Amino acid sequence: MKNLFYLLLLLVAVSCSKSETPDPVPPVTPPVTPPVTPPVTPEAYYYPPLSSDEWTTKTAASLNWNETKLQEAFDYAATKATYGLIVLQNGRIVKEQYWNGWTKDTRYYIASAGKSVVGFVAGIAQQEGLININSKTSAYLGTGWTSLPLAKENLITVKNQLSMTTGLDDGVADVDCTDPACLVYKADAGTRWAYHNAPYHLVQKLIGIAAGQTFNAYCKAKLFDKIGMPGAFWLNYIMYCTTREAARFGSLILEKGKWNGTTLLSDTDYYNAMVNTSQDYNKSYGYLWWLNGKASFMLPQSQVVFPTALNTSAPADMFMALGKDDKKIYIVPSLNVVVVRLGDDAGSSVAGPSSFDTELWGKLKLAMNY
To answer: pTM score, two decimals?
Structure first.
């Protein structure tokens, strides 16, 4: 019995000893400091030198573009009388190719794609106080520049010329004739959209009159020489340039009138109006620029309104300088892309938008993954 008592006493003592032993303290893990990621500096827009052939490039792979599909787009263009094709992203050449004996130095006419150049230069002329696009055209050309009664002629403003709403008859025998006898009344200015070369030609003339020099000289001084296009020129209302020179102009427009720290067009209201719908009839037309992504569009030599965007294969924010026989300068702000295509008729022989636009951008979409 006594032994049993001592045994119980020993067990109690051991139990108490264990309960008084503190639990082990877990090790303290020092806080982990995450690595510091340096901020990503956005890539600056690239402007090629003014007097050099140097032009920085970048690869399609660096943009996560599909290089094979991009080459397929170029191969397609080659089958459609394309002689020069260039793609810029953020000002850098991603791909450039020439055919039919052309090189980067081959200069060619760009037909009505030059209209968009005039649309931009008109903004510079207004910025300098030489013209006011809301003024009547006769303030610069004098009265009697059309065959219209004076009251009807005075309805026409420079803005009407830029937006193709002069009301002058586009069904005359010679749409390029600027003689008063060729400028015939069809409707009051501002009530009808019609693609008409003659009133556009007279924008060049009135800018030259206001500037006291030829339009070619004014454009060279205010635009061509400022962005490295000294060899570009105008002849009989038609502009001639190389594929790369057209790409320079495209970069200027993409950058909203700025070139490497120099602002050629500071009038942001004019710029925004130029690249947006300018009237109520053709939603896809600005100041001599074609616009994608609008609810409807009209075409040259037609009064039909098509209830869709110009090019459903291309980004909605794209706007374009388009000329006969598929002269193209495409501007895509959302992709920071400029695409220039020069050559001859790709198959549809129209003055502005064509099926080539949709077909080319259907292929570029696969390449650029937008």
So the answer is: 0.89
Question: Do the domain assignments include residue 287?
Answer: yes
Tokens of 362: 């259907």
Asked whether the beta carbons of 263 and 128 are under 8 A apart, the reply is no
343: phi then psi, degrees, rounded to nearest 5: 160, -150
Task: Note whether residue 27 is domain-resident.
Answer: no
Pick the residue with more confidence: 145 or 24? 145
Residue from 131, 331, 113 nearest 234 by CA? 113
User: Considering its fold, how many domains does the chain have in total?
Assistant: 1
Residue 110 lies in a domain: yes
CATH number for 355: 3.40.710.10
Report how far residue 324's alpha carbon sits from residue 259's, in angstroms, rounded to the nearest whole number: 28
The secondary element (H helix, E strand) that includes residue 96 is strand 92-98
Cα separation of the two ends of the chain: 94
Question: Is 195 domain-assigned?
Answer: yes
pLDDT in tens, 121-156: 999 999 999 999 999 999 999 999 999 999 999 999
Share of the chain above pLDDT 70, in %: 90
Domain extent, residue 189, equals 61-368
